[in-house]
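Tokens in:
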């Protein structure tokens, strides 16, 4: 997410927000800045179109995180929350919810932020595309690779940024999630 404000954006409940905030306090953000360490202007952000911005740190997706997400969303399907039954299932163990993976995008993507001069507000506007090419086995570590696809002026002091967010699972060649996210920033 571009800017200084971070949040889940995909409202998944207080429990997940609490888990998110605890992790965020432990792992500091990395901010991409101008070449001399200044925050970037709109024109500098526009120049990032088509470029890779970076890759986040790894984040462990353990059973406690999956169970907390299941409780927040009321999605208690056995493939997510019953390790014994899931061990005999199609994935050989429990897997994270696809939308849990999506809910981690603001945190993971926020580790590769671009700071903008004069930013007053940042909001998640939606997604153009979302796919889950492979499951996330519980106990896996995830990271996100971020690429700026498009930067557009939306009027009233706002700009829309479309990012390609690719969630990688450590040790897997196929990504767990590929999303084109839309964020709006107001100056």
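Residues out:
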């Amino acid at each position: 997410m571009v800017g200084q404000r971070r949040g889940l954006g995909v409202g998944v409940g207080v429990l997940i927000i609490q888990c998110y905030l605890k992790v965020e306090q432990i792992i500091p953000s990395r901010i991409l800045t101008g070449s001399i360490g200044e925050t970037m202007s709109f024109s500098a952000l526009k120049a990032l179109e088509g470029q890779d911005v970076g890759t986040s740190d790894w984040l462990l997706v353990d059973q406690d995180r999956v169970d907390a997400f299941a409780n927040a969303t009321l999605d208690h399907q056995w493939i997510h929350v019953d390790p014994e039954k899931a061990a005999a299932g199609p994935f050989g163990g429990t897997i994270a919810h696809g939308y849990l993976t999506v809910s981690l995008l603001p945190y993971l993507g926020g580790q590769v932020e671009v700071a903008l001069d004069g930013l007053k507000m940042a909001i998640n506007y939606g997604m153009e595309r979302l796919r889950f090419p492979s499951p996330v086995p519980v106990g896996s570590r995830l990271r996100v690779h971020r690429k700026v696809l498009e930067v557009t002026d939306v009027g009233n002091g706002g700009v829309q940024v479309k990012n390609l967010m690719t969630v990688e699972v450590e040790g897997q060649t196929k990504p767990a999630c590929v999303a084109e996210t839309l964020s709006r920033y107001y100056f």
